[in-house]
Design a protein that fits this description.
By secondary structure, this protein is α/β, with parallel strands linked by helices. It has a domain of 78 residues: Rossmann fold, CATH 3.40.50. The chain is 31% helix and 16% strand. Strands 1-2-3-4 form a four-stranded mixed β-sheet. Helix 3 packs across helix 4. The longest helix is centred in the first third of the chain and has 11 residues. The protein starts with a helix and ends in a 15-residue tail after the last strand.
């Protein structure tokens, strides 16, 4: 989709929390597609406090269900809503995702 509509796409060859935070800050990343361990790191790791991640409008997470506590931790720390999706590796990868104007989890639904 990014290539099709001409959006800038920032990708990492290998996950590294500090590098990810630097890239988000530098490129003003607006949407991030991440697995639950990354949501956990963004919600709890002290290194995150040293970066400006305010450009992120939504985290999209898949691969495993997220708990209410984890989505709340991210919201309370960064004010970033977390959406959950469902997919299969053979579907490359998402097959279901919340609508753009929906934010699930403990917050109910609201417009972004």
């Amino acid at each position: 989709m990014s290539v099709y509509v001409g959006w800038e796409l920032v990708a990492m060859a290998r996950w590294d929390l500090e590098l990810a935070c630097r890239l988000i800050q530098k490129h003003r990343v607006t949407f991030a597609y991440v697995p639950p361990p990354v949501v956990l790191a963004l919600g709890k790791h002290p290194l995150v406090d040293g970066y400006d991640l305010s450009s992120v409008k939504t985290l999209h997470a898949a691969a495993a269900p997220l708990t209410r506590e984890l989505t709340m931790a991210v919201w309370e720390r960064l004010r970033i809503p977390v959406k959950q999706g469902f997919g299969l590796s053979e579907a490359s990868p998402a097959t279901h995702i919340q609508m753009p104007d929906e934010v699930g989890g403990p917050f109910g639904n609201w417009r972004l």
